[in-house]
Amino acid sequence: MGTLLSVIDLAGTFVFALSGATAGVRRRLDLFGVLVLSFAAATFGGVTRDLLIGAIPPVAIADWRYAAVSILAGVVTFYGYKAVDRLQNPVLVFDAAGLALFAVAGTDKALAFGMNPAPAAVLGMLSGIGGGMARDVLLSEVPTVLRSELYAVAALAGSTVVALGSLAGVPMSVSMVVGACLCFGLRIIAMRRGWHLPIAGQSSIVREREPRDIE
Amino acid sequence: MGTLLSVIDLAGTFVFALSGATAGVRRRLDLFGVLVLSFAAATFGGVTRDLLIGAIPPVAIADWRYAAVSILAGVVTFYGYKAVDRLQNPVLVFDAAGLALFAVAGTDKALAFGMNPAPAAVLGMLSGIGGGMARDVLLSEVPTVLRSELYAVAALAGSTVVALGSLAGVPMSVSMVVGACLCFGLRIIAMRRGWHLPIAGQSSIVREREPRDIE
Amino acid sequence: MGTLLSVIDLAGTFVFALSGATAGVRRRLDLFGVLVLSFAAATFGGVTRDLLIGAIPPVAIADWRYAAVSILAGVVTFYGYKAVDRLQNPVLVFDAAGLALFAVAGTDKALAFGMNPAPAAVLGMLSGIGGGMARDVLLSEVPTVLRSELYAVAALAGSTVVALGSLAGVPMSVSMVVGACLCFGLRIIAMRRGWHLPIAGQSSIVREREPRDIE
């Protein structure tokens, strides 16, 4: 179980890093800039969570594998941009898997550091969406997650399951699997159907919309 | 006194959250984005202060009431944008009150965590203005506070009174009231008269200008 | 040696603050905004490093001299913008010296707080480049360091020397001098020759380019 989690964690890191690197290449950053965006997109959420719960130094800084995986993703994207771009649909599926894992694992870690369930769920969501927000802010764009379809809400649904599970005394492994599946499922369905949240002044809660790029 | 402070603190949080939500609705963020902006505008200053002084976890993360009040303000703004927009003048007065309270309470907290008076005053100011800066950066705008009328300076005046008061051995409650009144008064007068700070290359230190929107 | 380091450290702070203030004046910020940019450009890298390694409160917050030097640089730039602007070439040389010092001293501090060599080198680089990134993000621009010539890479080269030196048991003073000289030399040569990193899709690794403004 521990090994499996590590593998998924690093896979999620890789996929999030791909999204950062892709955005960096599109905006014509140089190689270093692309690597910074890879690393930021892959780790910013977890690093912020760790700072907020007092897990110092943050694991993504102290454990070289996160940086190594991020750099690998950045280099692959930099020199093989066309191939990565063509793989966008599979990447989006991995991205949903990474989001699900980061959200439930982040909630678990926040609970383990003594946070109450409500802030733990918020920190779990932040673990999932923080990297994408950092990526967009560094590119001087309004974070996609603030105006896109169900992305953060999927993360929050997953992290809430874990937080409620801990309140109810459900074994953590069970609530983490359920939470991750809920997040992943919601995200995939939202992409397929173009679900998104309402914007003020529009009539319907859920409108259809074109599926879009990597978050 | 403690209860009164709590009430004002949450009221300040609410008003700061309104400014974040209003900015989010204007920029066409979705509901989640509006709530993130509410929360960021209400809490980013205090969270940053807490990280810098080692008050982990930051109170605005650990205490659910800050998130609850922020979300309430966000939802109210989202579904009642026109009404909130019409209330802009009273909101600006509350915003000045929130700024005053955050500045003096932030200074007090920094002093309580062992900071020297000068950094404590800066951290008090940061508690007051940090949320608005985060709101603007998330919207990919240059923070208003960096180019507007006397907003940060009012906060700094209030926090400096508290810091100097602690040096001089004045009872904290006295210097906090004086500091808050100074900040609030300066801010209100600055809004009324359109006072602002100089821009390099312009001749006068203080020019008249149109009063402007929520900071 | 300690005094010399302090002097260079504050000199680096001053020069980095100049770059923040210059950018602020150009974007028509008011006096307060210019001072915030001075302080952010001078200290953000070190503050972030300190948060990540648990050196709380960060030295640039707790020690008033960093703020004083930053404010001095901001005021000088604000009221003497033309003179500062004319001194750009000497300022760039000092900027390279500040970068070199911040990178090696930041690595040294991260090692002293128990970080492994690889993250210590990254944190050293971050100490050097973080301020410029914060300056650009506050001005709603994509950080220059993500798309410019050899700036971050020079910092990373210097910090890597210090990290490898600590692994190899070389006396810290030796590896810091070697690392700082390497960083400074690389940066100066890169400016002179217009060296920069590749952008995806371009053929050559290193192209000639016009030397450019303060990082």
Task: Name the descriptors.
homotrimer; about 220 residues; mainly alpha; 9 helices; globular; disordered C terminus
Descriptive notes:
- Three copies of one chain form a homotrimer.
- The first copy, chain A, has 215 residues and is mainly alpha-helical.
- In chain A, α1 crosses α4 (64-79), α2 runs antiparallel to α4 and α2 (31-53) runs antiparallel to α7 (117-138).
- The first copy, chain A, has helices at 2-26, 31-53, 59-62, 64-79, 81-86, 88-112, 117-138, 152-168, 172-193.
- The two termini of chain A are 28 Å apart.
- In chain A, 60% of the residues are buried.
- Chain A contains nine helices and no strands.
- Chain A has one domain (2-193).
- Helices cover 74% and strands 0% of the residues of chain A.
- At the A-C interface, α2 and α4 of A face α2 and α7 of C.
Largest interface: A-C, 29 and 29 residues
Into which percentage range does the β-strand content of chain A fall? under 5%
Total domains of chain A: 1
Order of helices and strands of chain A: HHHHHHHHH
Distance between the termini of chain A: 28 Å
| Number of separate strands of chain A | 0
Oligomer: homotrimer
Report the radius of gyration of chain A as a whole number of Å.
Answer: 17 Å
Approximate helicity band of chain A = over 70%
Average residue-wise pLDDT of chain A: 88
Overall shape of chain A: it is globular
